[in-house]
Write a structure and sequence with these properties.
Blueprint lengths: L2 H23 L7 H22 L3 H18 L10 H25 L1 H8 L2
Helix pairs in contact: 1-2, 1-3, 1-4, 2-3, 3-4
Length: about 120
C-alpha cells in the first residue's frame, strides 16, 4: 500500500469518527436525527472496513470509498435546504471537501491499473 492510499484511509477514518459523533452534535433538525443515525451507521461501516483495507484488502478499500461517498450524499441537502445554520453549512462543506480528498487519495491505489503499474516495477 502506498502513502497516498494510507493518507486516504486516515482522512476517511477521521471523517468516520465525525459520523459517529453526528447524533450527539445534532440539534435534531440540522441534520435531522434520522440522517444523523444513518451517518453513524455509515461511520461504523467505514471504520470496520478501514482495518482490512489498511492491511491491503482492495475490496475493503472500495467499501471505504463507497461508504464515504454515501456519507457525503447525506451532507448535500444542507446546501439546498433553507434555514440551515452557518456552522452546519461549514461542517457539510468541510465534509464534502475532505471526502473528495479521501476518495481522490484512495481510488488510484485501489484501481486494477495501479496494480499493473506497481507490478511492472
Amino acid at each position: 500500500m502506498n502513502r497516498s492510499t494510507k493518507a486516504g484511509l486516515i482522512v476517511a477514518g477521521v471523517l468516520a469518527v465525525g459520523d459517529l459523533l453526528t447524533p450527539v452534535l445534532s440539534d435534531g433538525e440540522h441534520p435531522p436525527m434520522s440522517i444523523a443515525l444513518i451517518a453513524l451507521a455509515i461511520g461504523v461501516v467505514t471504520l470496520v472496513a478501514a482495518v482490512p483495507a489498511w492491511r491491503g484488502s482492495k475490496a475493503a478499500g472500495w467499501v471505504v470509498v463507497v461508504s464515504r461517498l454515501l456519507s457525503m450524499l447525506g451532507a448535500v441537502p444542507a446546501f439546498f435546504v433553507s434555514d440551515v445554520p452557518a456552522p452546519a453549512l461549514i461542517a457539510a462543506g468541510a465534509g464534502v471537501a475532505l471526502t473528495l480528498l479521501a476518495v481522490g487519495l484512495l481510488v488510484p491505489g485501489l484501481s486494477r491499473r495501479s496494480q499493473l503499474v506497481e507490478g511492472s516495477r
